[in-house]
Design brief:
The protein is an alpha/beta fold and 122 residues long. The protein has 4 helices and 3 strands. The protein has one domain: P-loop containing nucleotide triphosphate hydrolases (Rossmann fold), CATH 3.40.50. Helix 2 links the parallel strand 1 and strand 2. The longest helix has 17 residues. InterPro entries: Arf-like_GTPase, P-loop_NTPase, Small_GTPase_ARF/SAR.
């Protein structure tokens, strides 16, 4: 089952309902929005606390912007080393291509990984 819901405040009340039925958690963070990373960290850790083995895929978006934090900075800012030893966790740096018509290799790799994780859980 695939469930997608936004991370903005009005949608957060739905997270427990859908997360319990999900096969994995995909979390997207804006790498260039430094001021919201503490909020993203708090919300991510709330989401994963309910299910200690749910696989986690994090997309650090907007890596093409000059102001974007490097992937290692995102790992630290989100405290991904604290997600638990029993959880499969993956972190990808991403960005949208200029015209949006091509899929960056990282996104193709992420797509393949997500399909494999979902198949493993079912």
């Amino acid at each position: 089952m695939e469930n997608i819901f936004g991370g903005s405040e009005p949608f957060r009340s739905y997270s427990e309902t859908y997360l319990s039925k999900g096969l994995l958690l995909i979390f997207v963070v804006d790498s260039a929005d430094h001021s919201r990373l503490p909020e993203a960290k708090k919300y991510l850790h709330q989401l994963i606390a309910a299910n200690p083995v749910l696989p986690l895929v994090v997309f650090a978006n907007k890596q093409d912007l000059e102001a974007a934090y490097h992937i290692t900075d995102i790992h630290e800012a989100l405290a991904l080393s604290e997600v638990g030893n029993d959880r499969k966790m993956f972190l990808f740096g991403t960005h949208v291509t200029k015209n949006g018509s091509e899929i960056p290799p990282t996104m193709q790799d992420a797509k393949d990984l997500i399909a494999q994780l979902a198949a493993d859980v079912q």
